[in-house]
Amino acid sequence: MKLFVNVTFFQDSGMLHQSRHVLSPEVYKEMASRWPSFCQEERHGIHVRVEVESRLQEEVFDFLAEHGKRPWWKKYPMLGLERFFLLQGERIFDQLEIAGAELVTLGNRKMISNMVMYHDDCDVWVDGQTIDPGTPFGGGGGSNLPILTEDARLFIQSGGWTGFVFRPVEIKDPRPNQGKLWLMWPECELPAMINEVVDSSGKPFDPATSDQCMIQDLYSPWLYRYSKESVESSGQNCVFRTHERFGANKTNYGYATRKPDIIVRRAFAEWLKSYGLIDTMVPVLLE
Question: How far apart are CA 115 and CA 177, in angstroms?
């Protein structure tokens, strides 16, 4: 596994001089001269992408520190950190790590709709005008659990996999001849993760008071961590849902949209991938 961090800096135009990601013209010019590869024509500014704990990362961050710019190495909080610049973390797995994983998440999936709303985990509705008819198995705006078409549901059922049910998805304002959609709902819930679960302020998550439920993980995709014993005690299903419900505790709609993520046996994920239903998978760490 390799870890990278990304950040973009801009030249001070006289309007944004208070921004943590703005450099004076002199510093900007010197940085561009030292590391011309960071200056890409298709981007505005200087885009820094360095491997964590590499010599290059040390050189660049030392240069920035000399000019009063220091990195913030956490994901949350993101506000009230004027003395720091914010990093976007990137986690890259090699194929051996994925092949050796017992459990995985489904990684990035195509969007079946960008308007998916949840009530109480499995009561789901989708805006019919936003549905992509060319996506049989995918996610939605803010959706962790798979949403799939009737044909995809029947196909997956024919594979003999266990540990999940299909719940109907309500389609509001459907298009003509719109087919049914289904939510894949894992029947078994895993115990709590080992990961640090926080709200947007970086404090431990409290279901009663926190605004968000997130993992304190700078890098994407998240690496879920479990004790091996707790997973082994959860049975031999091929699909599980997380105990944690990620997302907002309250939205502009007046209700929470927190929902679990899906974790599956690698064999099931590889079967889905072999038929083109998913593109990537992310290993789950058992400790």
Answer: 19
Query: Per-residue pLDDT for 263 more than 60?
Result: yes
DSSP 177-224: TPPPEEEEEESEEP---SSPEE-TTSSBP-TTT-SEEEE--SEES---
Structure confidence by residue, pLDDT tens digits, 29-46: 999 999 999 987 666 789
Residue with tokens 């709200």: 199
Structure confidence at residue 15 (pLDDT):
60
Q: Which long-range contacts (CB under 8 A, 24 or more apart) does 257-261 make?
A: 257/117, 257/118, 257/142, 258/118, 258/213, 259/118, 259/121, 259/142, 259/143, 259/144, 259/145, 260/121, 260/144, 260/145, 260/186, 260/189, 261/105, 261/144, 261/145, 261/224
Q: For residue 37, report the phi and psi dihedrals to the nearest 5 degrees.
A: -65, -20
- Residue 276 or 252, more confident: 276
Q: List pLDDT tens digits, range 196-252.
A: 999 999 999 998 888 889 999 999 999 999 999 988 888 788 999 999 988 887 665
Both structure tokens of 142: 């803010």
Coil, strand or helix at 101: coil
**Residue 185 near residue 166 (C-beta atoms within 8 A):** yes
Average of per-residue pLDDT values in the chain: 88
Whole-angstrom CA distances from 101 to 64, 272, 280, 285 are 38, 16, 13, 8
Do residues 103 and 286 make contact, with C-beta atoms less than 8 angstroms apart? yes
What is the token pair recorded at 153?
């549901």
Q: Is residue 284 within 8 Å of 101, Cβ to Cβ? A: yes
The pLDDT of residue 118 is: 64
